[in-house]
Amino acid sequence: MAKVVSQKIVGMNGDEAVAFAAKQAKVDVVAAYPITPQTIMVERFSDYVADGEVDTQFVCVESEHSALSACVGSSLAGSRVFTATSSQGLALMHEVLYLASGLRTPIVMAVANRALSAPINIHNDHSDMMGSRDCGWIQIYAENAQEAYDWTLQAFRIAEDHNVSLPVTVNLDGFTISHAMEGVAILEDGEVSKLVGKRQPKYRLDPDNPMTFGALTLPDYYSEFKRQQVDAMDKTPPVIAAVADEFKKVSGRQYSDVSCFNVEDAEAVVICMGSIAGTARTVATRLRQQGKRVGVLKIWQYRPFPTRTIAELLSKVKCTGVIDRAVSFGAPYGALCSDIASTKVQTQIQTRILNVVCGLGGRDVKPTDIEQVFEKALRCADGTPVDTSVSYLGVRQ
Amino acid sequence: MVALKELPTRELFGPGHRMCTGCGPAATARITMKALEKPAIIVNATGCLEVASTIYPDTAWKVPWVHTLFENTAAVASGIEASLQAQGRADAVDVIAFGGDGGTFDIGIQALSGALERKHDFTYICYDNEAYMNTGIQRSGATPYGAATTTTPAGSKIPGKLNPKKDLIGICAAHGIEYAATASVAFWNDYISKVRRATAVKGPAVLHVLAPCPLGWRFDTSETIKLAKLAVQTRYFPLYEVENGKYKLSMKVPKPVPLEEFLKPQGRFRHLFAPEFARNLEELKKQVESNWNRIAQLCGEPIVQTQPASG
Q1: What is the CATH number of the domain that holds B294?
Q2: How does pLDDT run across B62-115, given as a tens digit for each residue?
Q3: Looking at the 3D structure of chain B, how many domains does it have?
Q4: Res A2: pLDDT
């Protein structure tokens, strides 16, 4: 059994950590376009190229649409591929996202999550990725630079696994993670090489074995193609779990579909994704000290959604407060809360659900805000009648 | 020049595809595949050639082929070329991108411009049938002045399209690429030489091929090659090359056939022969003449007013 290796702690922001992971994974092709707050990723990667530290073909394209299109081309030709984007860039890629998953191209893309226009805003929320929620990509949310680094490394293995063969986004909150300097424990290059290996494409554009990719598929076959994509998504969780196990053996850091904090005996749980989880744990710790039975459930693996895991964890939780970082206009709940509500219906768990939308366009979510969510969830858990409509925390009327 | 017997008999773009009888783009694809000398990867934009050649589970292509989207063909080709560079196989494989005029002149021009600027080693072939034929004959930036399409119909007030055709080769050549050329499906020998020249270039090359569409232009399916020929012989579609910025006529047309002989067999120009639109017919002729003179001048040819009077 592999031993946990010693790791250097390096000061890096989230973008740098992701770029460094892509470098260590020895990506063959990067095609990218700059957009705040993802820019540092492409800048750092350009440094690696300029200094000859990588053999990567770096294609500096003229738009995000072309960035992802070029990635699809490279991936189909058999290469290990990386790109990164944010906000409007992800929105511009929208049709290419569906193409990448439909053509089953392994691609790893970091998304420095940022609000969508209008009004224009460069700061963090999850509107960008939520707008492309159903694009058929595996979607991972990181809480800090360390997680962004760790997940980026693992993402190559997951995407390129022949049972999966799907693209992966590693989401990191814009500025909050992308630009915040942290100590990141990094693996030696050699350890990373052992861990992520080289891509071994099963199918590719190859003159020695010609194949047609992207054929016109009419009503007689289209549904079967989509069903195969569903199956591929269904086959993903065990692959993620296996990669996470291997990663833990080397790094000592354990990843899974979700991360729990005092959920086991909690009456009220807050569910969230990304950097906000740290604030939620701090608040939960303080409330525990006051004897309040609260916990935090952080979702790493948003797609495929860990329905069974979450149902099991919430089976005894009386009330669940779900924090959405994006608005789902005209819908009963935000996107994440809709998934929790669907989980409840499908698995017949009894937890009551409250939905909070907050932290839009980079608005700070303070411990007092999270405390309000816990307090309301605790009242609800007690059986006190509470308003169950979506609340928009800290928004001026 | 290539002798007919030198061409491979093998068909890499196989019979059994579902393009129309008399389809210019299908003929373009077929000759292209015969012209190629190295193994190739084909990237195909959304359009007639794509939808009619790969209806799942069938495919007409005996080479690696991919269709992705409408406007990103040059970008996908960029990615494939970058991958081949990473694999050290870029010199061994030709990357060929096919796009129609809509996918090239209009929606795909940004991706094409980016790929040309980045100097990817690939050949972009625009098969131009002068409108969005796949969606039902709507006007594109390649539709000529006066042509009726379903979005520029020949109305009682407005006689078809009122804007001229874009100068695609001028736009591409302005990127400082080594090779760009126009070609015609009717002059296969000239076309094959150009495909071979384009693929031999290290870096991007663009071919703009006039490929008549019997359905969209409204002419008899037996007349495709004849019309493609007339387009050149009337100076409607000059054949030329731009090599490192230097223009060169591929076919001189000292005695042009009257433009009407090209226009008359086509339903899309029929309205121009009504007396009330005589002015518009004159305008089209003027545009054809001035385009020819512009190209001739760029090619260093003497400009002689030889366009005969209509008749």
Answers
A1: 3.40.50.970
A2: 999 999 999 999 999 999 999 999 999 999 999 999 999 999 999 999 999 999
A3: 1
A4: 60
Hey, how many other C-beta atoms are within 10 angstroms of the C-beta on A254? 11
Q: Is B274 on the interface with A (CB under 8 A)?
A: no
Summarize pLDDT for A328-366 with one digit per residue, the tens: 999 999 999 999 999 999 999 999 999 999 999 999 999
Residue A307: CB partners within 8 Å, gap ≥ 6?
A342, A343, A346, A347
Question: How far apart are alpha carbons A297 and A285 in whole angstroms?
Answer: 13
Taking an 8 Å cut-off on Cβ atoms, the answer to whether B39 and A62 are in contact is no
**Which domains occur in chain A, in start order?**
8-251 (3.40.50.970), 258-392 (3.40.50.920)
Nearest to A257 by CA among A199, A195, A303: A303
From the list B54, B55, B110, the residue facing A63 with the nearest CB is: B110
Inform me whether the pLDDT recorded for B275 exceeds 80.
yes
The answer to the question of residue B193 being in a domain is yes
B43 vs A contacts (CB less than 8 Å) = 73
Which of B62, B68, B86 is the closest to A214 by Cβ? B68
Report if residue B134 sits inside a domain.
yes
The partner residues of A140 in beta bridges, in order of sequence, read A170, A301
Q: Given pLDDT bands bounded at 50, 70 and 90, which one contains residue B15? A: confident
Q: Is B311 part of any domain?
A: no
**Which of B76, B83, B114 faces A79 most closely, judged by CB atoms?**
B83
**Helix/strand/coil (H/E/C) assignment for every residue in A199-237:** CCCCCCCCCCCCCEECCECCCCCHHHHHHHHHHHHHCHH
- Residue B311's pLDDT is 43
Q: Would an 8 Å CB–CB cutoff place B57 in contact with chain A?
A: yes
Query: Is A32 in CB contact (< 8 Å) with chain B?
Result: no
Task: Check if B112 contacts A (Cβ < 8 Å).
Answer: no
Domain annotation covers residue B270: yes
Nearest to B11 by CA among B38, B35, B44: B35
Domain assignment of residue B194, given as a range: 4-298
Share of chain B above pLDDT 70, in %: 97
The complex's ipTM works out to 0.97
Whether the CB of A177 is below 8 Å from some CB of chain B: the reply is no
| A343 interface with B at CB cutoff 8 Å | no
